[in-house]
Design brief:
Length: about 110
């Protein structure tokens, strides 16, 4: 199973094994990762699963597409960055084994 590393704003790391097809939001919720609330249940209707994709992974994960729901929601996060994504919109595959996601300080 692919592994994903979630790094809290404090620097605390959580490495979890994630089944293919699982979203990064669901993996975080299933493993009690602090800083990922996912209030909408993964329906891309809030921004409480905001993460920063490590720059080394951004090309593989991709960016939020302008004009689509994810990009529209991200406009409301206080610490928007070019590598901001919603974890509910990142599906795990073998190609993402080793993915690193950082959690914003605003979500602790």
């Amino acid at each position: 199973m692919p592994k994903v590393t979630y790094i809290e704003a404090s620097g605390t790391e959580h490495v979890v094994s994630v089944a293919n097809g699982t979203t990064c939001r669901d993996a975080a919720m299933d493993n009690d990762i602090p800083g990922i609330d996912g209030d909408c249940g993964g329906a891309c209707a809030c921004a409480t699963c905001h993460v920063f994709v490590d720059p080394a992974w951004l090309d593989r994960v991709g960016r939020a597409v302008e004009g689509e729901m994810e990009a529209n929601l991200l406009q409301f996060v206080p610490d928007l960055s070019e590598n901001s994504r919603l974890a509910c919109q990142i599906d795990i595959t073998d190609a993402l084994d080793g993915l690193v996601l950082r959690l914003p300080a605003s979500q602790h």
